[in-house]
């Protein structure tokens, strides 16, 4: 009988993840294994994978172990590595709570983007301190078919291009990454958000994620959108001392983003575990070497 590997499935505003608990970092997860697990037809299916490892057991996180017991080793659906995943870290915290490693209240989680504080609320919402946005200078353009838009370059630990559009349908089918220029703006690729106004302090987005394609939500993307919209609207809490909050509708739900006067950004939304089961290790090995 083949070995079995435990997994769970979860989502945050329908940004969905395969969760692989592996406290001692004993499971080999090369990019092909991650892509096989995230495959929606031949695998379990997910926009990405959350490898749950004790910080002390992972070479990229050992330096954060004193601050955060657990490391979110996040992978995109194509197996590539990303610096940060905002919905992922909220689902990661929900998993830790379910597994008895965390309780309601605050929890520190190590990520490639540094240690993040996550708050598990009584009402089921999960809030994460996402850190500060960086807005590099320089004009960026993104395009879809014949249309192109100026975009705001926003770094949330990972790269984003935020384009304001009249109609979200103008983003087309988003079956391939929207071209951008100049190429030097994003040497490692980019997540592209298309944003439409819905009312005061209220926007809606569609997103094409680097390494995952169009997804139903992107937490770092929603934060990038909130900051880009605030600056477009002439609001900068670090200058005025007044926090700014945006409701961001994503295809899979709603996220609430607040930028505080110290520049720190908080994101709140749901995080749900929907299933758990076992992966057949023989299948995974075969799928990985195929
Ligand atoms: N869905 C995530 C972002 C995941 C990483 C992204 N695809 C990248 O490559 O930067 C989120 O919720 O932030």
Automatic annotation (TrEMBL):
Alphabetical UniProt keywords = Amino-acid biosynthesis, Cytoplasm, Isomerase, Lysine biosynthesis
The listed locations are: Cytoplasm
Pfam families reported in the protein's UniProt record: DAP_epimerase
**GO MF terms, alphabetically ordered:** diaminopimelate epimerase activity
- So which domain of life are we looking at? Bacteria
EC category: isomerase
Positions bearing the site annotation: Could be important to modulate the pK values of the two catalytic cysteine residues: 160, 209
What pathway is this protein said to act in by its record?
A: Amino-acid biosynthesis; L-lysine biosynthesis via DAP pathway; DL-2,6-diaminopimelate from LL-2,6-diaminopimelate: step 1/1
Catalyzed chemical reaction(s): (2S,6S)-2,6-diaminopimelate = meso-2,6-diaminopimelate
**Gene3D superfamilies per UniProt:** Diaminopimelate Epimerase, Chain A, domain 1 (3.10.310.10)
Enzyme Commission no: 5.1.1.7
Principal localization reads cytoplasm
- Per the UniProt entry, the signal peptide is none
- Give the family, as the similarity comment puts it: Belongs to the diaminopimelate epimerase family.
Q: Which HAMAP family match?
A: DAP_epimerase (MF_00197)
Question: How is this protein organized at the quaternary level?
Answer: Homodimer.
Q: What is this protein called?
A: Diaminopimelate epimerase
